[in-house]
# Entry
Amino acid sequence: MMQSDKSPSTESHRAAAAQLESVRCAVFTISDSRTLATDESGALIERLLIEAGHEVVDRQLLTNDVAPMRAALEAALVRADVDVVLCTGGTGLGSRDQTVEVVRPLLDRELPGFGELFRALSFLEQIGAAAMLSRAVAGAARGKFVAVMPGSRAAVELAMTRLLIPEIKHVLREIRR
# Structure
């Protein structure tokens, strides 16, 4: 029998987290081929955040170059006006896919459930066994929540609507406790 996610503890945490007004987010698209004009995934993240009542305080397009990517992420992590950093792209197995290698060392605590749930949902609802090729990752870094999603629009929509938007305040509350 599947257990409901509506345990008294979970519900009380969500209720406390709902008191947060809006979450201030930095959105980074990592791609060697997109421009801000053609960045559908970053635009979708921004739109979904705003529709959910959150604020996008920074949105950038970064290449798959390690040093500039690390610099941008580290700069976001020290900003007082950023609560959450959301990255899309660079999660595959290609030689230029470096997002996970840049983000993971910045995490104080990894949240393995994000990648596990993302891949499970992706497997069941979208791409089947190819879901194992995703290296989606998330965790806490310097008191902020960081999540890395694949670059496809479908993957971003899945991660944002099924995992991140519903739990973003709850995750942030837990990080700050």
The chain has one domain: 22-176.
